[in-house]
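REQUEST ID: PR-0412
SUBMITTED BY: lab tech R.K.
PRIORITY: routine
TASK: structure prediction, single protein chain
INPUT:
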Amino acid sequence: MPVVGKSLAVIACQIAQAVVSAAVMLYLAVVLDAATFGKYVFITTTCAIVPLFAGLGTEHVLIMEASRSESLLPVQLGNALAVRAPVSLALIGAGVLVVLGWDFDDPGAWFCIWFGSIVAAISNPLLMAVYRITSNYVRPWIYLLTGTMILLVLVVAMGKGITLLTVAIAFAGAHLATLTLFAFDIRKRTTIRLEPQTFWKSFRSGIIFAASQACDFIFARLDIFLVQALCGSRALGVYSIGQKIVSMLQLIPASVNIVELPEFHRAASDLGSLTLKFRVMRRALTEIGTIAFGLLALNAKVIISSFFSDEYQHASEVLMVLCAGGLILFANYPYYMLAEAIRAIRARLSARIVTTVGTAVAVAAGVKMLGVVGAAYGVLLGQLIFMLLLHKITKTANGGMSALISDTRLCLLGVACLLGSVGLTSGLDSQPIRSFAASSLYVVTFLGGGYQLRWTLLVSLLARGRTSKAAPS
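STATUS: complete
OUTPUT:
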Protein backbone atom coordinates (compact mmCIF):
# COMPACT_ATOMS: atom_id res chain seq x y z
CA MET A 1 0.00 0.00 0.00
CA PRO A 2 1.53 3.37 -0.97
CA VAL A 3 2.14 6.14 1.55
CA VAL A 4 -1.05 8.02 0.57
CA GLY A 5 -3.17 4.90 0.98
CA LYS A 6 -1.64 4.04 4.35
CA SER A 7 -2.05 7.60 5.61
CA LEU A 8 -5.68 7.73 4.46
CA ALA A 9 -6.34 4.40 6.19
CA VAL A 10 -4.89 5.75 9.44
CA ILE A 11 -6.89 8.99 9.10
CA ALA A 12 -10.10 6.99 8.48
CA CYS A 13 -9.47 4.85 11.57
CA GLN A 14 -8.73 7.91 13.70
CA ILE A 15 -11.89 9.64 12.48
CA ALA A 16 -13.96 6.53 13.29
CA GLN A 17 -12.52 6.40 16.79
CA ALA A 18 -13.08 10.14 17.22
CA VAL A 19 -16.74 9.75 16.20
CA VAL A 20 -17.33 6.97 18.74
CA SER A 21 -15.47 8.95 21.42
CA ALA A 22 -17.66 11.96 20.64
CA ALA A 23 -20.74 9.73 20.96
CA VAL A 24 -19.55 8.63 24.43
CA MET A 25 -19.03 12.24 25.52
CA LEU A 26 -22.38 13.40 24.12
CA TYR A 27 -24.22 10.55 25.84
CA LEU A 28 -22.52 11.29 29.15
CA ALA A 29 -23.30 14.99 28.78
CA VAL A 30 -26.98 14.10 28.42
CA VAL A 31 -27.34 11.51 31.20
CA LEU A 32 -25.06 13.13 33.79
CA ASP A 33 -25.69 16.48 35.40
CA ALA A 34 -23.39 19.30 34.34
CA ALA A 35 -21.27 19.21 37.50
CA THR A 36 -20.69 15.44 37.29
CA PHE A 37 -19.90 15.56 33.59
CA GLY A 38 -17.50 18.46 34.09
CA LYS A 39 -15.75 16.54 36.84
CA TYR A 40 -15.41 13.49 34.57
CA VAL A 41 -13.85 15.63 31.80
CA PHE A 42 -11.46 17.25 34.26
CA ILE A 43 -10.36 13.95 35.80
CA THR A 44 -9.79 12.21 32.45
CA THR A 45 -7.84 15.21 31.12
CA THR A 46 -5.69 15.46 34.24
CA CYS A 47 -4.99 11.74 34.55
CA ALA A 48 -4.04 11.36 30.87
CA ILE A 49 -0.94 13.55 31.09
CA VAL A 50 1.54 11.70 33.31
CA PRO A 51 1.13 8.11 31.93
CA LEU A 52 2.17 9.29 28.45
CA PHE A 53 5.67 9.89 29.82
CA ALA A 54 5.85 6.66 31.86
CA GLY A 55 7.89 4.97 29.13
CA LEU A 56 10.61 7.63 29.50
CA GLY A 57 10.97 7.86 25.73
CA THR A 58 11.89 4.20 25.16
CA GLU A 59 9.00 3.78 22.68
CA HIS A 60 10.82 6.22 20.38
CA VAL A 61 14.03 4.24 20.76
CA LEU A 62 12.08 1.07 19.91
CA ILE A 63 10.86 2.61 16.65
CA MET A 64 14.25 4.11 15.80
CA GLU A 65 16.27 0.92 16.31
CA ALA A 66 13.83 -1.81 15.27
CA SER A 67 12.81 0.04 12.09
CA ARG A 68 16.43 -0.07 10.94
CA SER A 69 16.76 -3.77 11.78
CA GLU A 70 13.58 -5.70 12.57
CA SER A 71 15.67 -8.41 14.22
CA LEU A 72 16.12 -5.95 17.11
CA LEU A 73 12.37 -5.80 17.74
CA PRO A 74 12.26 -8.46 20.54
CA VAL A 75 15.16 -6.84 22.42
CA GLN A 76 14.00 -3.24 22.04
CA LEU A 77 10.43 -4.18 22.95
CA GLY A 78 11.80 -5.94 26.04
CA ASN A 79 13.83 -2.85 26.94
CA ALA A 80 10.81 -0.58 26.56
CA LEU A 81 8.61 -2.89 28.66
CA ALA A 82 11.35 -3.08 31.30
CA VAL A 83 10.97 0.68 31.74
CA ARG A 84 7.23 1.08 31.20
CA ALA A 85 6.13 -1.79 33.49
CA PRO A 86 7.83 -0.74 36.77
CA VAL A 87 7.07 2.95 36.21
CA SER A 88 3.41 2.09 35.54
CA LEU A 89 3.24 -0.07 38.68
CA ALA A 90 4.83 2.73 40.67
CA LEU A 91 2.22 5.18 39.35
CA ILE A 92 -0.59 2.78 40.26
CA GLY A 93 0.89 2.39 43.74
CA ALA A 94 1.13 6.15 44.07
CA GLY A 95 -2.52 6.37 43.10
CA VAL A 96 -3.45 3.92 45.87
CA LEU A 97 -1.50 5.93 48.44
CA VAL A 98 -3.13 9.18 47.34
CA VAL A 99 -6.61 7.65 47.51
CA LEU A 100 -5.97 6.22 50.97
CA GLY A 101 -4.13 9.18 52.44
CA TRP A 102 -5.73 12.25 50.86
CA ASP A 103 -9.24 13.37 51.70
CA PHE A 104 -10.96 14.55 48.51
CA ASP A 105 -14.18 13.98 46.57
CA ASP A 106 -14.75 10.82 44.49
CA PRO A 107 -11.47 8.99 45.26
CA GLY A 108 -12.77 5.79 43.64
CA ALA A 109 -13.47 7.56 40.36
CA TRP A 110 -10.07 9.24 40.43
CA PHE A 111 -8.26 5.95 40.97
CA CYS A 112 -10.20 4.02 38.28
CA ILE A 113 -9.57 6.70 35.67
CA TRP A 114 -5.93 6.96 36.78
CA PHE A 115 -5.56 3.18 36.40
CA GLY A 116 -7.32 3.22 33.02
CA SER A 117 -5.08 6.02 31.74
CA ILE A 118 -1.93 4.10 32.72
CA VAL A 119 -3.22 0.95 30.98
CA ALA A 120 -4.18 2.97 27.89
CA ALA A 121 -0.63 4.34 27.60
CA ILE A 122 0.73 0.79 27.43
CA SER A 123 -1.45 0.07 24.38
CA ASN A 124 -0.63 3.38 22.73
CA PRO A 125 2.16 4.44 22.31
CA LEU A 126 4.14 1.36 23.44
CA LEU A 127 2.45 -1.61 21.78
CA MET A 128 1.26 0.56 18.89
CA ALA A 129 4.96 1.03 18.02
CA VAL A 130 5.26 -2.68 17.15
CA TYR A 131 2.61 -2.34 14.44
CA ARG A 132 4.24 0.80 13.04
CA ILE A 133 7.56 -1.03 12.75
CA THR A 134 5.95 -4.01 10.97
CA SER A 135 3.87 -1.72 8.69
CA ASN A 136 0.55 -2.98 10.03
CA TYR A 137 -1.47 0.19 10.46
CA VAL A 138 -5.15 -0.79 10.44
CA ARG A 139 -5.27 -3.63 13.00
CA PRO A 140 -4.14 -1.58 16.06
CA TRP A 141 -6.65 1.14 15.29
CA ILE A 142 -9.37 -1.50 15.11
CA TYR A 143 -8.35 -2.58 18.62
CA LEU A 144 -8.45 1.02 19.87
CA LEU A 145 -11.85 1.54 18.21
CA THR A 146 -13.11 -1.69 19.81
CA GLY A 147 -12.09 -0.43 23.24
CA THR A 148 -13.94 2.85 22.69
CA MET A 149 -17.04 0.98 21.51
CA ILE A 150 -16.88 -1.22 24.63
CA LEU A 151 -16.91 1.94 26.74
CA LEU A 152 -19.94 3.24 24.82
CA VAL A 153 -21.83 -0.05 25.30
CA LEU A 154 -21.00 -0.13 29.01
CA VAL A 155 -22.17 3.41 29.78
CA VAL A 156 -25.37 2.94 27.76
CA ALA A 157 -26.07 -0.36 29.53
CA MET A 158 -25.89 1.38 32.93
CA GLY A 159 -29.14 3.18 32.23
CA LYS A 160 -30.49 5.27 35.10
CA GLY A 161 -27.98 3.81 37.56
CA ILE A 162 -25.08 5.65 35.97
CA THR A 163 -22.80 7.60 38.31
CA LEU A 164 -19.31 9.09 38.11
CA LEU A 165 -17.88 5.98 39.78
CA THR A 166 -19.59 3.53 37.42
CA VAL A 167 -18.42 5.52 34.40
CA ALA A 168 -14.89 5.49 35.80
CA ILE A 169 -15.03 1.72 36.28
CA ALA A 170 -16.25 1.34 32.68
CA PHE A 171 -13.39 3.59 31.53
CA ALA A 172 -10.81 1.37 33.25
CA GLY A 173 -12.48 -1.84 32.01
CA ALA A 174 -12.60 -0.67 28.39
CA HIS A 175 -8.89 0.20 28.36
CA LEU A 176 -8.03 -3.09 30.06
CA ALA A 177 -9.95 -4.93 27.33
CA THR A 178 -8.04 -2.99 24.67
CA LEU A 179 -4.70 -3.89 26.24
CA THR A 180 -5.76 -7.55 26.31
CA LEU A 181 -6.48 -7.47 22.56
CA PHE A 182 -3.07 -5.92 21.89
CA ALA A 183 -1.25 -8.37 24.14
CA PHE A 184 -2.78 -11.51 22.64
CA ASP A 185 -2.09 -10.34 19.09
CA ILE A 186 1.49 -9.21 19.73
CA ARG A 187 2.30 -12.57 21.35
CA LYS A 188 1.75 -14.13 17.91
CA ARG A 189 3.85 -11.51 16.13
CA THR A 190 7.06 -11.30 18.12
CA THR A 191 8.86 -12.44 21.23
CA ILE A 192 10.09 -10.29 24.10
CA ARG A 193 13.69 -10.42 25.22
CA LEU A 194 15.68 -8.29 27.67
CA GLU A 195 19.40 -7.71 27.15
CA PRO A 196 21.05 -5.78 30.01
CA GLN A 197 23.95 -4.69 27.79
CA THR A 198 21.57 -2.80 25.45
CA PHE A 199 19.05 -1.75 28.09
CA TRP A 200 21.07 1.12 29.54
CA LYS A 201 21.90 2.50 26.10
CA SER A 202 18.19 2.48 25.21
CA PHE A 203 17.33 4.01 28.57
CA ARG A 204 19.77 6.92 28.12
CA SER A 205 18.52 7.63 24.60
CA GLY A 206 14.94 7.39 25.83
CA ILE A 207 15.51 10.07 28.47
CA ILE A 208 16.44 12.53 25.72
CA PHE A 209 13.31 11.59 23.78
CA ALA A 210 11.21 11.98 26.93
CA ALA A 211 12.65 15.44 27.61
CA SER A 212 11.97 16.44 24.00
CA GLN A 213 8.43 15.05 24.25
CA ALA A 214 7.84 17.05 27.43
CA CYS A 215 9.03 20.24 25.71
CA ASP A 216 6.74 19.51 22.74
CA PHE A 217 3.86 19.06 25.18
CA ILE A 218 4.59 22.40 26.85
CA PHE A 219 5.07 24.20 23.53
CA ALA A 220 1.76 22.90 22.17
CA ARG A 221 -0.13 24.35 25.17
CA LEU A 222 1.97 27.42 25.86
CA ASP A 223 -0.40 29.85 24.17
CA ILE A 224 -3.38 28.49 26.10
CA PHE A 225 -1.66 28.92 29.47
CA LEU A 226 -0.43 32.44 28.68
CA VAL A 227 -3.73 33.71 27.27
CA GLN A 228 -5.51 32.43 30.38
CA ALA A 229 -2.95 34.03 32.70
CA LEU A 230 -2.74 37.38 30.90
CA CYS A 231 -6.25 37.87 29.50
CA GLY A 232 -8.62 35.66 31.48
CA SER A 233 -11.15 32.96 30.69
CA ARG A 234 -13.30 34.96 28.27
CA ALA A 235 -10.35 35.81 26.02
CA LEU A 236 -9.15 32.21 26.22
CA GLY A 237 -12.58 31.04 25.07
CA VAL A 238 -12.30 33.25 21.97
CA TYR A 239 -8.73 32.18 21.27
CA SER A 240 -9.32 28.46 21.81
CA ILE A 241 -12.06 28.37 19.16
CA GLY A 242 -9.58 29.28 16.44
CA GLN A 243 -6.88 27.08 17.97
CA LYS A 244 -9.14 24.00 18.11
CA ILE A 245 -10.29 24.42 14.50
CA VAL A 246 -6.72 24.63 13.21
CA SER A 247 -5.56 21.72 15.37
CA MET A 248 -8.09 19.40 13.69
CA LEU A 249 -6.07 19.58 10.48
CA GLN A 250 -3.00 18.29 12.33
CA LEU A 251 -4.55 14.86 11.90
CA ILE A 252 -3.06 14.88 8.37
CA PRO A 253 0.67 15.29 9.17
CA ALA A 254 0.28 13.23 12.37
CA SER A 255 -1.05 10.31 10.32
CA VAL A 256 1.79 10.70 7.83
CA ASN A 257 4.22 10.64 10.75
CA ILE A 258 2.72 7.35 12.02
CA VAL A 259 3.25 5.76 8.60
CA GLU A 260 6.52 7.36 7.50
CA LEU A 261 8.70 7.62 10.61
CA PRO A 262 9.78 3.95 10.45
CA GLU A 263 10.47 4.40 6.72
CA PHE A 264 12.76 7.36 7.46
CA HIS A 265 14.74 5.20 9.88
CA ARG A 266 15.01 2.41 7.28
CA ALA A 267 16.35 4.89 4.72
CA ALA A 268 18.88 6.39 7.16
CA SER A 269 21.74 4.22 5.90
CA ASP A 270 21.43 5.76 2.40
CA LEU A 271 21.78 9.55 2.66
CA GLY A 272 20.61 10.18 -0.91
CA SER A 273 17.47 8.09 -0.42
CA LEU A 274 16.77 9.75 2.93
CA THR A 275 17.11 13.25 1.46
CA LEU A 276 14.79 12.38 -1.41
CA LYS A 277 12.19 10.93 0.95
CA PHE A 278 12.41 14.02 3.15
CA ARG A 279 12.02 16.45 0.26
CA VAL A 280 9.07 14.61 -1.24
CA MET A 281 7.35 14.57 2.16
CA ARG A 282 8.09 18.26 2.82
CA ARG A 283 6.84 19.25 -0.60
CA ALA A 284 3.70 17.12 -0.35
CA LEU A 285 2.72 18.39 3.10
CA THR A 286 3.44 21.97 2.06
CA GLU A 287 1.16 21.57 -0.96
CA ILE A 288 -1.63 19.94 1.06
CA GLY A 289 -1.27 22.52 3.82
CA THR A 290 -1.34 25.45 1.40
CA ILE A 291 -4.64 24.26 -0.07
CA ALA A 292 -6.22 23.29 3.28
CA PHE A 293 -5.21 26.34 5.29
CA GLY A 294 -5.86 28.70 2.38
CA LEU A 295 -9.46 27.48 2.20
CA LEU A 296 -9.79 27.65 5.98
CA ALA A 297 -8.53 31.24 6.09
CA LEU A 298 -10.90 32.29 3.29
CA ASN A 299 -13.87 30.82 5.15
CA ALA A 300 -12.86 31.84 8.68
CA LYS A 301 -15.50 34.55 9.07
CA VAL A 302 -18.28 32.34 7.71
CA ILE A 303 -17.31 29.45 10.00
CA ILE A 304 -17.20 31.59 13.13
CA SER A 305 -20.38 33.56 12.37
CA SER A 306 -22.32 30.41 11.42
CA PHE A 307 -21.50 28.26 14.44
CA PHE A 308 -20.70 30.71 17.25
CA SER A 309 -22.29 33.74 18.88
CA ASP A 310 -21.23 37.35 18.32
CA GLU A 311 -18.85 37.38 21.29
CA TYR A 312 -16.62 34.92 19.37
CA GLN A 313 -16.27 37.04 16.22
CA HIS A 314 -12.63 37.96 16.98
CA ALA A 315 -11.88 34.23 16.75
CA SER A 316 -11.92 34.60 12.95
CA GLU A 317 -8.82 36.85 13.13
CA VAL A 318 -7.11 34.32 15.42
CA LEU A 319 -8.04 31.54 13.01
CA MET A 320 -6.54 33.36 10.00
CA VAL A 321 -3.20 33.95 11.74
CA LEU A 322 -3.03 30.40 13.11
CA CYS A 323 -3.59 29.07 9.59
CA ALA A 324 -0.16 30.43 8.67
CA GLY A 325 1.33 28.79 11.76
CA GLY A 326 -0.43 25.55 10.90
CA LEU A 327 1.10 25.56 7.43
CA ILE A 328 4.59 25.89 8.92
CA LEU A 329 3.78 23.05 11.31
CA PHE A 330 2.90 20.86 8.32
CA ALA A 331 6.34 21.58 6.85
CA ASN A 332 7.99 20.91 10.23
CA TYR A 333 6.79 17.31 10.51
CA PRO A 334 9.29 15.97 7.93
CA TYR A 335 12.04 17.79 9.84
CA TYR A 336 11.01 15.97 13.04
CA MET A 337 11.34 12.64 11.25
CA LEU A 338 14.63 13.61 9.59
CA ALA A 339 16.19 14.73 12.88
CA GLU A 340 15.37 11.34 14.42
CA ALA A 341 16.63 9.46 11.35
CA ILE A 342 20.07 11.14 11.52
CA ARG A 343 20.07 10.80 15.34
CA ALA A 344 20.15 14.56 15.96
CA ILE A 345 17.99 14.10 19.06
CA ARG A 346 20.01 16.23 21.48
CA ALA A 347 20.21 19.09 18.98
CA ARG A 348 16.45 18.86 18.37
CA LEU A 349 15.83 19.02 22.13
CA SER A 350 18.05 22.12 22.43
CA ALA A 351 16.21 23.74 19.51
CA ARG A 352 12.85 23.01 21.13
CA ILE A 353 13.94 24.49 24.48
CA VAL A 354 15.19 27.67 22.79
CA THR A 355 12.00 27.90 20.73
CA THR A 356 9.74 27.34 23.75
CA VAL A 357 11.39 30.15 25.70
CA GLY A 358 11.38 32.47 22.68
CA THR A 359 7.74 31.64 21.88
CA ALA A 360 6.70 32.33 25.48
CA VAL A 361 8.24 35.80 25.23
CA ALA A 362 6.68 36.39 21.78
CA VAL A 363 3.21 35.26 22.87
CA ALA A 364 3.33 37.34 26.04
CA ALA A 365 4.47 40.42 24.11
CA GLY A 366 1.87 39.80 21.41
CA VAL A 367 -0.93 39.51 23.96
CA LYS A 368 0.15 42.77 25.61
CA MET A 369 0.15 44.63 22.29
CA LEU A 370 -2.65 42.99 20.28
CA GLY A 371 -4.71 40.89 22.68
CA VAL A 372 -5.61 37.32 21.74
CA VAL A 373 -4.61 37.87 18.10
CA GLY A 374 -1.12 38.73 19.34
CA ALA A 375 -0.88 35.27 20.89
CA ALA A 376 -1.50 33.76 17.45
CA TYR A 377 1.29 35.89 15.98
CA GLY A 378 3.60 34.68 18.76
CA VAL A 379 2.83 31.05 17.90
CA LEU A 380 3.43 31.78 14.20
CA LEU A 381 6.83 33.26 14.98
CA GLY A 382 7.70 30.30 17.21
CA GLN A 383 6.86 27.77 14.50
CA LEU A 384 8.97 29.69 11.97
CA ILE A 385 11.97 29.89 14.32
CA PHE A 386 11.73 26.18 15.09
CA MET A 387 11.65 25.31 11.39
CA LEU A 388 14.78 27.37 10.73
CA LEU A 389 16.58 25.74 13.66
CA LEU A 390 15.54 22.28 12.48
CA HIS A 391 16.76 23.14 8.99
CA LYS A 392 20.16 24.05 10.42
CA ILE A 393 20.31 20.89 12.55
CA THR A 394 19.50 18.61 9.61
CA LYS A 395 21.57 20.46 6.98
CA THR A 396 23.58 17.33 6.11
CA ALA A 397 20.44 15.59 4.80
CA ASN A 398 17.82 18.20 3.89
CA GLY A 399 19.20 19.42 0.55
CA GLY A 400 20.19 22.89 1.75
CA MET A 401 18.58 26.31 1.48
CA SER A 402 18.03 26.07 -2.27
CA ALA A 403 16.01 22.88 -1.77
CA LEU A 404 13.97 24.58 0.98
CA ILE A 405 13.12 27.48 -1.34
CA SER A 406 12.25 25.11 -4.17
CA ASP A 407 10.03 22.89 -2.01
CA THR A 408 8.16 25.74 -0.29
CA ARG A 409 7.77 28.19 -3.18
CA LEU A 410 4.21 26.90 -3.48
CA CYS A 411 3.47 28.99 -0.39
CA LEU A 412 4.24 32.18 -2.36
CA LEU A 413 1.95 31.00 -5.13
CA GLY A 414 -0.71 30.26 -2.50
CA VAL A 415 -0.43 33.76 -1.00
CA ALA A 416 -0.72 35.35 -4.46
CA CYS A 417 -3.77 33.23 -5.30
CA LEU A 418 -5.30 33.98 -1.90
CA LEU A 419 -4.94 37.74 -2.25
CA GLY A 420 -6.13 37.64 -5.85
CA SER A 421 -9.20 35.60 -4.94
CA VAL A 422 -10.12 37.98 -2.12
CA GLY A 423 -9.62 41.02 -4.36
CA LEU A 424 -11.66 39.68 -7.28
CA THR A 425 -14.61 38.66 -5.09
CA SER A 426 -14.64 41.65 -2.73
CA GLY A 427 -17.50 43.28 -4.65
CA LEU A 428 -19.98 40.51 -3.76
CA ASP A 429 -22.45 41.54 -1.05
CA SER A 430 -23.19 38.22 0.64
CA GLN A 431 -20.41 36.89 2.91
CA PRO A 432 -21.22 33.19 2.27
CA ILE A 433 -21.35 33.71 -1.52
CA ARG A 434 -18.16 35.77 -1.40
CA SER A 435 -16.37 33.04 0.57
CA PHE A 436 -17.58 30.31 -1.77
CA ALA A 437 -16.52 32.25 -4.87
CA ALA A 438 -13.15 33.13 -3.38
CA SER A 439 -12.57 29.50 -2.33
CA SER A 440 -13.40 28.16 -5.78
CA LEU A 441 -11.21 30.75 -7.46
CA TYR A 442 -8.38 30.02 -5.04
CA VAL A 443 -8.33 26.29 -5.73
CA VAL A 444 -8.56 26.75 -9.51
CA THR A 445 -5.83 29.40 -9.68
CA PHE A 446 -3.53 27.56 -7.26
CA LEU A 447 -3.73 24.23 -9.06
CA GLY A 448 -3.70 25.91 -12.46
CA GLY A 449 -0.70 28.04 -11.54
CA GLY A 450 1.10 25.02 -10.15
CA TYR A 451 0.37 23.14 -13.37
CA GLN A 452 1.77 25.92 -15.53
CA LEU A 453 4.86 26.40 -13.37
CA ARG A 454 5.41 22.64 -12.89
CA TRP A 455 5.70 23.21 -9.14
CA THR A 456 3.17 20.79 -7.71
CA LEU A 457 3.42 17.06 -7.10
CA LEU A 458 0.01 16.74 -8.72
CA VAL A 459 1.58 17.92 -11.97
CA SER A 460 4.30 15.26 -11.65
CA LEU A 461 1.67 12.57 -11.21
CA LEU A 462 -0.30 13.82 -14.22
CA ALA A 463 2.85 13.95 -16.34
CA ARG A 464 3.72 10.40 -15.27
CA GLY A 465 0.23 9.27 -16.22
CA ARG A 466 0.50 10.84 -19.71
CA THR A 467 3.90 9.21 -20.17
CA SER A 468 2.59 5.79 -19.26
CA LYS A 469 -0.38 6.16 -21.64
CA ALA A 470 1.88 7.21 -24.47
CA ALA A 471 4.32 4.34 -23.91
CA PRO A 472 4.08 1.52 -26.47
CA SER A 473 2.42 -1.65 -25.23
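NOTES: The chain has a mean pLDDT of 88.
REVIEWED BY: pending
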